[in-house]
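Quick one:
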Amino acid sequence: MTDAAAAFIRHPSRSLTRRTVLGAGLSATALLALSACSPQPQLLSPQSAAVRAAEKRRFSSGNSVAVDLRASETTIDLAGTLAATWSYGTLPATTIRATQGDLITARVVNDLPDGTTVHWHGIALRNDMDGAPHLTQDPIAPGADFTYQFLAPKAGTYWFHPHVGTQRDRGLMGALIIEDPREPLVYDDEWVVVLDDWIDGVGATPPEVLAELSQGMSGMQGMSDTPAGQGNLLKNARSSLLRGHAGDVKYPHYLVNGRPTGDPETFRSRPGARIRIRLINAGGDTAFRVALGAHRMTITHTDGYPVEPVDVDSLLLGMGERYDVLVTLGDGAFPFIAEAEGKQARGFALVRTSALAEAPSADVTVDELTGQVGTAEKLLAAEEFALPNRDIARQLTVRLTGGMASYDWGLDKRQFNMDKPLENARVIRAGERVGIDFVNTTTMWHPMHLHGHTYQHVGGGPRKDTSIVVPGQTLSVIFDADNPGQWMLHCHNVYHSESGMMTTVAYEK
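Output:
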């Protein structure tokens, strides 16, 4: 089954109707819903004057960055195993770099057999450039192209990926680094690290995995305490950090910057060098616990925003999360481990400051993995970036529901319909302080991601756009409604979101 068949098979005449209606400000679904019940709020469209006005208010440096992305079928070499996949030319794509306030112009050419989009994960950009299919744009048709253009509003570590079907569990990904022209951190070098779990073209494709998961996991019989499963499914992947089941998919490979443990990347530097490592979890179903052997890390940022520095031995990243750390390197060759949390597997790379030092093996024991683990709840926003105190004007409660047995993931016991993106939308108004309570009623963890905004964990916690919500937890966050339009809110486990754990947060006119 193709990604198009799995996610958004559409009739040409329906596409024309949807484009026409979106241009007028509302989707056909929204118009039907508004006519069915009265009164209903009128919603700002992604193409509205309010969206354009918000873009004009953003700081502009006067500079521009132009990039070309070509999404195409390709074959990658995973330490001698050839895998057919989709990518933007390399795995990961060439890092896009800009400076805060720059105008980014990205022309995307679609050479794939299915429609696609690009979502600029974590960027509070103009709504019509967000890459949300059926909400902010029609998918880019095979053989067509689309140009994204937006100001880069905040410095930080971000990334880009498709938002159509299960495409983001293929090779379509890359880092987007927005530099701070007044960077306060002092460091000698930088290493951008993209972590990924890999199955595409190695026995299965992501649409096939979703089809298998959609049959439910209740038929999997009792097994040993070690991760095991049948087909591409995984059972008994357990994590105390994640308070239960760690993941659903049995991946053959875990990659660091596109390379498996059998062919690791080597980052070279010198003893005593102070290194900024920008960590991005681009995985589909895997949290990574990251450590650098014989080193401590200082957390400086999460999801692009500064935090009060914290020293840790290792760091936990859910899918979609990003962390920046500083490390002062010793003399030798050191293992960089991205442990697939609860899955008893790992990604691996080398950090080398000596040409003579013997390289550690990929299965080396790293004490830092069992030391002090950095997680979001241990962090505080840097004072300058904490949200000011305000009364909450609108409180939203989002209940995470469903389970593995029937694979019926949803929000408030409803599965999202991509063809009706404004159905059951959460409505807010510009200027409001909004609170969200994520209530996890399930037995699995979920990395929840809000498009177009950066919220703050209550109690002075970090500023983020993607946060782990563990079973039984209520995670409370706040944000200011300062970016008008229609925005997705979803679990960043690709198979959970495609099963229905998604909704829309929409601004009222």
